[in-house]
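Model: You mentioned two targets. I'll fold them one after the other.
Researcher: Yes, keep them separate.
Model: Target one:
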Amino acid sequence: MYPVGPPKTYTPQPEAAPPTEQGNPLRASEVVSAWISNISSALVGGNYLKPESVALCPVSLPPVLGMMLAAMDEQKTKEKFLGLPPGSLTPALEVQIHQELGAFSRAHPFSQNSMVSTANFLTSSRPGQYHGDLVGILQDAYHTDLNTVNCSASVADATNAYVASKTEGRITNAFGELSGANRNRMVLALGNVLKFQGIWLESFEKSNTRPRVFHCADGSIINNVLMMHLTCKLQFASCRGFNAVAKPFRSENGNELNLVAIQPKRKHDPLGLPPILLKRAVSDLIEMTSAAPLVTGELTLPRINISYTDGKLFNTLGEITGLQITPMDLAKLGLSADDQLGVHRTINVSLDEEGARGAVANVGYSLTRSKNLTQVFTFDRPGYIAIVDGSGNRLMEATISDGQFLETSGAAKITIPPRLSSIDDLFSDAPLECSKKTGRAVKPVAIEEDISQSPSEVAGIVQKKLNARGEEFTFIEISNDLDALRIRVTTKDEAKKLQDKILELIGFDHFTHLKIIDLREFGRHVLVKISPDAKDKLLI
């Protein structure tokens, strides 16, 4: 792996920001803030209930999305990607947006000894096919490492080696369960790697760590979660039905880092975090805790070990923006229409008596087809945690809804309480699959896309089956990809009727394989998402 040749010319052009329809100029900082906030909250579960734990690194998203934006050529595609009105993205505003998206990367260049450091990269076996000013934008705004491999080498292996070296071996596989055959088809990978480490300002005593109870979002109880306990200086805040606490790490070279934990005030809420949490309360509570005075309080916190991977960023972007990104949309990368795109995000974070250490990799890839009162905060029920720097940037955030990220004393001892009042209360937004042994959410295994059926053929089969008895379901869109079949309709009532019809056809034992996702909050439609097992049965 070696650096590519000299960058192509990239000259920012000074120009006033364009006016919006109301006559006020668009500000790059506001565009980026709103855009990243929508995507982050969707990925971490802010749009609908998620009974399973989810993790995200908000500050690593902007450079990855920015590099994708830089690879786009069509103005209309860029505007739709950013959620901007037609004609509003001028060259000057685009330059400013790239500078905003790359600001954190430029402020935290990679260093083995830094509290927080990050690196962006583009690795390719086709470097000569980059178009226009792409290389200049990547180097100027994102300080991107440009690497290439020869035709006999593996882009996937080179990328994994790069990520492993930057994360000191915490992440050795940036592509999740992507098959070996698909890794061999990889011709390009771009992404961001972030590493952070912090030592508590006041450490927990290991002798105070003991098994305690944690109440999961699905109503089950884990009886032996290892909980750390400490009386120390903390910052407390409360608003909108939530309590928050901030515990500082040691400052280093002027950098500040805090752990922020948030949870609902209601102790026994079987459905866990309501959707209002990430959308409205988190930013306020993070700001409030940072401004709150340090007071003596008691903190009980679980030992946490997050090992999380997810490959659905493209799908989430499509659901929010209405833009299903294709290789031809990323024209400046020189991809072909037959290439296949994907993004994997991998998070590895540990939180223990000494402090926090974490590594994050977001990698996009292309496959060629072929008051001084003692307060108490006990994190023993579904909640939210974040590692936040002194500027409010979230290096890592996660919802803790079940035992996926929690360390236990021996094997997890789980109690399943009696059923809730109705199946709708428990499963209206249940995970696609559920472990029969523990009742906890599990990730469906990714399957290869069936290239024997075109999108139009799949849509035809679905419409014919669902309207076979004279029903008149009206579909906005039917899409089939690697991990699910998605059917868009206008209202939630239509979605429920559609769900009932599909279950009638494939069997009601597939209930947990269908999910209704209401995206009208983002100006989109209601989505019925069908997992691979149920999809295969429907398409037979």
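Model: Target two:
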Amino acid sequence: MNQTGNTSISVVAVLVLAGIFFAFNSLRVGSGIKDGDEITSYFYAKGYDINGLYRKEDGFTNLELRNEHNTPQGVVDAILESRGGDGLLYHLSLHYWLQAWGDNDRSGRLFSLILMAFSMVLVFLLTRFLFGDAVMAGMAAFIFLLHPLIGDYSVETRPYAMGVAATLMSTYFYVRLLQSQGGVQQWGLAISYGIFSTLAVFVTYISGYILVVHALFALLTVRSLKKWMYLAVSGLIVIVSLGAWMKYGAWEALSNLAGKSDWWVDFVQKTTKYAYPATIGGVAKATIRYVGQIFGNNLYGVIDGDKMYFAFSIIFILCCLFLALTGLYGKQKKITGRRYKVLLPTLLIVIPIGIAMYTAFKAGHTVALSRRYATFIIPYAAIPMAFAIANLWKGDNSLLSIGSKVLIVFWVMIFLGGVQASFPTNLHSNFYTNHITNHYKEVGEYFKNNYREGDTLLYGNAEDAMRMNTYLKVDKPVYQRIDVSLGEDLVYVSREDTIVQFFDYGKYPDREQFRYFWPY
């Protein structure tokens, strides 16, 4: 393939950028309070069946939660019981990571940050291999690392960073396989592609969209029977591996995920800040917001009023579409097989959006179109935008070229505005949690000195119990029980029936704000 630009300099530059990305975001992993999703990942990694908390009518102790199932088999059992099998690889990896590097918030978040920094390097490698242009690849990697959603989800103890890395690895080996010229190398590429595709789905079932895109792309472009044989070997690895896992019990994940629809529909009916009911209008609004976020519009909450925001988003999306078309398709004659190569990133953007829309209608809510899932598409959306900036800015002085330059400036301004909106100082950022006093950690410290045998810690719900026990590092058993009649309160009852109400909304108003804070 024709390599343009100084490849070695680009590689060094990308590695330096990855280091800067890691260093900057490592300052933002903080010790702020865990959000609800981070708590669940922590508990799965500890091997505890979250639903089992409600079944422990006689109560439980912190040592039971910490030690009873804290084994690899415990993690497997917890994933099967609570998630039906979804998320196995991430939570097993997190289990070992926490054991090796520390059982604390910072450690779990650094795990995601390392994976996202690695993903930035993968964006560079994939783009360079596809188009043979190191400068364009470096620009795509730069857009990826600056993207506000990538910054947000690189410091969350959740499977999204690992999912992005695994899907990029799968796509990279897929492209290498399709473009290889034969020989023993193709068998290695076929096996590697099959392994990383399997791992991607084991990280989270959401990653399965890449198999759909890859299969469709192969149907549209592959005409070699021998190439199909290699793809069949890769597919066989995926089918056998996932089939064995499904037989082990993971098939229930699909029905379990669908079974959450009633809970989500009820939640959506109470608040529309996070998602909408799956009407045509609701899905349309969620899709507009979703696509805008994929291309860098992170200004939700900054622009006042839904109507203003969605009107602005439509203009922004049309701008991105124009830039993508002119940038990605504009130099068709300058790269051999460009049409073939452009099709793959196009499908990797369009098909997942379509799948998310279909899922929304089927589930009855638009949670599938929320920002966290947009992270899987961002690596591929960065490719056309990189081409648009690099190619159109070098254009002539025609009206079309001048208009394109104006749109590029507009896109860059919105994109950088979204980056600013994700800074910790902005209350609409995911890092908002770092602004909240971590009362759970305070209570955990309190019990180191004040808890005595026979005392009871009462919760109104399992979420408080989970959150509290991530900080309850007392080395003696602390007896706890869930009492749903307490509502949202966390209450400590001593042996002398002295009652201490730790969480009272009048005293800790920011806790209530956190519980119902859904910026996207």
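Researcher: Noted. Anything on target two?
Model: The CA atoms of residues 422 and 429 lie 5 Å apart.
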